[in-house]
């Protein structure tokens, strides 16, 4: 993503603020048979739907949508609150630094390097950036075009930074879910926190922090929960002794198993079976 912005050279064409009075003239929807300009559309309040060539994308507070050219566009409000938004119409070229003299090139399909619609988890800063960009553009004081270009560049870099952080979070969550699946399938084996952390290439302390974040409990607590769930199934569904059940679910000390079972379940393994 950052490699794209190394070559990105934007040009602002217009900045529009869609407020309540805007919809009084537009009606309940914004419609374009064929889009003629690239647009970055930011929703700061309300609910709606964007249809692009017949494909629907929900819009909500914090949504960022990019609208390519030559597309059939419909943006509809969803009751009860109309969309309030900023829309930046722009164009851009990609700089070719390797050439002498420096040149430009056009990308095959002009769009920024992220999905057509993305939700921003932390979008308050985006709203402030958009308001400043709109004010600079509307007042049109000396040098406004260059200032607007700089503000736009900062804006999309802020979007890019959030998306990169989200990708890191998604990767971390996948790693933890892989670890959860491993525990579910290997609960009867020896499972140490360091061993599990190595499997997902994380430090022991950071692994514990992420595990608690995505699973809601510590790795040890989760392992214990899985083992006890399996033990309860065996106690009710088989005639195996408590000692054998303990070994089969990963407890190598039957007495320790009984203490943990009684503490967590509220009755002894034997009483649970007979209940």
Automatic annotation (TrEMBL):
Is Transcription regulation found in the keyword set? yes
Q: Which Pfam families match?
A: HTH_18
Domain HTH araC/xylS-type as annotated: residue spans:
177-275
Under SUPFAM superfamilies, the record lists: Homeodomain-like, Regulatory protein AraC
Task: Name the UniProt key words of this record, in alphabetical order.
Answer: DNA-binding, Transcription, Transcription regulation
- From which lineage does this chain's organism come? Bacteria, Bacillati, Bacillota, Bacilli, Bacillales
Q: What is this protein called?
A: Helix-turn-helix transcriptional regulator
InterPro entries, A to Z: Homeodomain-like_sf, HTH-like, HTH_AraC, HTH_AraC-typ_CS, RmlC-like_jellyroll, Tscrpt_reg_AraC-type_HTH
Q: Is Transcription one of the keywords UniProt gives this record?
A: yes
Gene3D superfamilies listed in its UniProt record = Homeodomain-like, Jelly Rolls
- One function term, GO molecular function aspect: DNA-binding transcription factor activity
Species: Cohnella herbarum
């Amino acid at each position: 993503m950052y490699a794209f912005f190394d070559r990105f050279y934007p040009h602002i064409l217009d900045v529009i603020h869609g407020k309540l009075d805007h919809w009084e003239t537009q009606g309940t929807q914004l419609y374009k048979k064929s889009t003629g300009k690239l647009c970055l559309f930011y929703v700061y309040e309300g609910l709606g739907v964007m249809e692009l060539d017949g494909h629907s994308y929900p819009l909500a507070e914090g949504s960022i949508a990019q609208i390519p050219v030559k597309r059939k566009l419909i943006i509809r409000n969803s009751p009860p609150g109309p969309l309030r938004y900023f829309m930046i119409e722009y164009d851009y070229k990609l700089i070719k630094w390797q050439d002498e003299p420096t040149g430009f090139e056009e990308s095959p399909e002009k769009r920024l390097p992220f999905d057509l619609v993305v939700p921003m988890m932390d979008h308050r800063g985006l709203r402030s950036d958009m308001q400043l960009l709109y004010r600079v553009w509307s007042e049109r004081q000396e040098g406004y075009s260059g200032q607007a270009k700089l503000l736009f560049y900062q804006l999309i870099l802020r979007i890019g930074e959030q998306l990169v952080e989200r990708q890191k979070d998604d990767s971390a969550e996948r790693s933890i879910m892989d670890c959860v699946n491993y525990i579910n399938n290997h609960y009867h084996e020896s499972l140490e926190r360091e061993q599990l952390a190595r499997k997902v290439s994380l430090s022991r302390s950071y692994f514990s922090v992420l595990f608690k974040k995505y699973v809601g409990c510590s790795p040890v607590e989760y392992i214990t929960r899985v083992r006890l769930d399996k033990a309860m199934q065996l106690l009710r569904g088989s005639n195996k002794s408590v000692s054998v059940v303990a070994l089969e679910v990963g407890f190598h000390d039957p007495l320790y198993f009984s203490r943990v079972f009684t503490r967590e379940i509220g009755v002894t393994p034997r009483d649970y079976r007979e209940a």
